[in-house]
């Protein structure tokens, strides 16, 4: 019995407008900076029109990427709320590509922008096995003090009573054709701006380390420390961190060079330590594991894996011959692909927008 499981940071699936750019130019879209907008009312009218026009192209591409996943269960990051999720599922996934998801689960989390993690599921797998949701639990309320995770590094920006997860860890108990499967859907703290001599990744690392420790604690509390290896579970989502990357050197005129390297430290080491969970993406070639192109200009460009389906040892062993798929047709044209990986982009894809997302969805067929 097989199951198609996918994860995708759909990026800002919003049901509301953000007018803060009128007073804060850092939040103002670049196209509106080209025009002399003289009043807040005029700015709001233009921002509404820009957002709506841009969003339709973007969501068509997001729907095409999800359709290419052809997943039975889809874990999403950056969904605004259930109303936005329902409107997208019906208006795009169902009406546009003919495949919808009747079962939807989203619990409001901690993100200051209101973006949440969610799970969409079909009523049965492609081979006719029923997909039953037994329980959905949010862990958004956990604090550093609750799990005794507070330390000097966190003290620079946080207090003991602050919540660990910057979004949530959504625990979903399922029964697929009568067999158990538990999903943990997460979206870890993003890499912020440089601070006190540290780059954005290192400056925010303590927050992601705490989130990874909390996820591991939740799973070990559920199944028992030292007794998780034979359980059937997966951790899915955007981890906003990586254990390796591929540096991009060169330019369009002279060609590019792709140089892989491993990171000395990563928040994800907490999860991979002692084989607690396995990253099946490592079965792909080292230049072909990336799910995101990062660029801060020619001086800083790399490919890395931010999006994961971590498998429990039992689930990984059962699927040792299977490899995750990466859907890259929704990537903008600015993304630099290693030779041989180029794909045909979706219609109307732009240089950097519109696009399905900066993140590539990943999907894996699993024997459960």
TrEMBL record:
<dbReference type="InterPro" id="IPR005135">
    <property type="entry name" value="Endo/exonuclease/phosphatase"/>
</dbReference>
<feature type="domain" description="Endonuclease/exonuclease/phosphatase">
    <location>
        <begin position="66"/>
        <end position="359"/>
    </location>
</feature>
<keyword id="KW-0540">Nuclease</keyword>
<keyword id="KW-0378">Hydrolase</keyword>
<dbReference type="Pfam" id="PF03372">
    <property type="entry name" value="Exo_endo_phos"/>
</dbReference>
<dbReference type="InterPro" id="IPR036691">
    <property type="entry name" value="Endo/exonu/phosph_ase_sf"/>
</dbReference>
<keyword id="KW-0255">Endonuclease</keyword>
<protein>
    <submittedName>
        <fullName>Endonuclease</fullName>
    </submittedName>
</protein>
<dbReference type="GO" id="GO:0004519">
    <property type="term" value="F:endonuclease activity"/>
</dbReference>
């Amino acid at each position: 019995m097989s199951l198609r499981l996918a994860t995708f940071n759909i990026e800002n699936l919003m049901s509301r407008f953000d007018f803060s750019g009128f007073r804060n130019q850092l939040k103002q879209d670049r196209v509106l900076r080209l025009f002399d907008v003289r009043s807040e009312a005029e700015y709001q009218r233009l921002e509404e029109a820009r957002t709506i026009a841009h969003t339709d192209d973007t969501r068509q591409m997001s729907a095409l990427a999800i359709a290419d996943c052809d997943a039975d269960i889809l874990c999403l990051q950056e969904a605004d709320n259930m109303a936005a999720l329902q409107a997208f599922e019906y208006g795009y996934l169902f009406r546009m590509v003919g495949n919808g998801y009747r079962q939807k689960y989203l619990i409001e989390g901690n993100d200051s922008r209101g973006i949440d993690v969610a799970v969409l599921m079909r009523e049965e797998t492609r081979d006719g096995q029923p997909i039953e949701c037994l329980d959905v639990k949010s862990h958004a309320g956990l604090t550093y003090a609750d799990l005794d995770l507070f330390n000097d590094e966190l003290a620079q920006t946080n207090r003991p009573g602050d919540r660990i997860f910057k979004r949530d860890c959504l625990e979903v108990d399922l029964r697929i054709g009568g067999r158990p499967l538990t999903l943990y859907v997460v979206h870890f703290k993003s890499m912020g701006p440089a601070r006190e001599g540290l780059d954005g990744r290192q400056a925010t690392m303590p927050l992601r380390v705490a989130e990874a420790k909390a996820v591991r604690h939740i799973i070990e509390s559920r199944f028992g420390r030292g007794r998780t290896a034979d359980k059937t579970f997966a951790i899915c989502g955007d981890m906003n961190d990586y254990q390796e990357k591929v540096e991009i050197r060169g330019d369009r005129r002279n060609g590019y060079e792709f140089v892989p390297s491993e990171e000395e430290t990563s928040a994800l080491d907490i999860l991979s330590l002692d084989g607690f969970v396995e990253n099946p993406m490592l079965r792909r070639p080292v230049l072909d594991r990336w799910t995101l192109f990062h660029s801060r200009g020619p001086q800083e460009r790399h490919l890395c894996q931010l999006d994961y389906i971590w498998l429990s040892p039992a689930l990984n062993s059962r699927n040792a011959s299977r490899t995750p798929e990466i859907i890259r047709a929704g990537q903008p044209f600015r993304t630099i692909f290693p030779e041989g990986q180029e794909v045909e982009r979706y219609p109307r894809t732009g240089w950097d927008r519109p696009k399905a997302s900066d993140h590539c969805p990943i999907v894996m067929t699993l024997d459960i």
